[in-house]
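The methods section describes the discrete structure representation at length, but only in general terms. The central task, working out the structure tokens from the amino acid sequence alone, is never made concrete. Nothing conveys this as quickly as seeing an actual entry. For illustration, here is how one protein appears when written out as sequence plus structure tokens:
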Amino acid sequence: MNLNRSLRWLIVAGLFLGIAGLDHPPSLMLIFPVLGLTVLSLVWKKALTKKLLIRFFLTILIIVPFFIYIFITTNSFPWIMSRQGEFPLGVNFIDFSLALGPTFIIGTIGAVIIFFSKRDEPIALVINASWLIAIIVLTFITNNFVNYSQTRFLQVAPQVPSAILTGYVLWGFYKKLISYFSKKKRLLFMR
């Protein structure tokens, strides 16, 4: 019963991701690198289970038809005209990250910590870290190598994983600070 309910929610979520991707195709294209980076991070942590791998694979299977549909439609008239008008805008990523403020910078630090640490983190944090890293990498690639407007990847809400990961970093800093001062307090009262 629980597996059936979980599978139903996975299918519904995959369908909604696909439908949202029809409206904003870069969001759909971001799913593949996010899932790939999440799998890499979980392999690095030795936390990838068969159940998670099957869920990721099913998500990709659900999204692929939407991706193929977008590919076919954008390669035919009149949609091919919009692709021909696509050009990189040369967004300076440093300026963009400074415009997002300290949340983006602290969130990026949190993404690196979560992605490369060996600690077992909740899957939601690993996905958020992969989301932010994928946005940064895809923006860099489209800015330097591909004739595609990198602002498309900057529109996939980098502030959302940034805010979540900033909360993670600040919470960890707070716990270490409390631990440090509680040890100092014990040492002070022991004298």
Notes: Residues 41 and 115 are 6 Å apart (CA to CA). The first helix runs from residue 2 to 23.
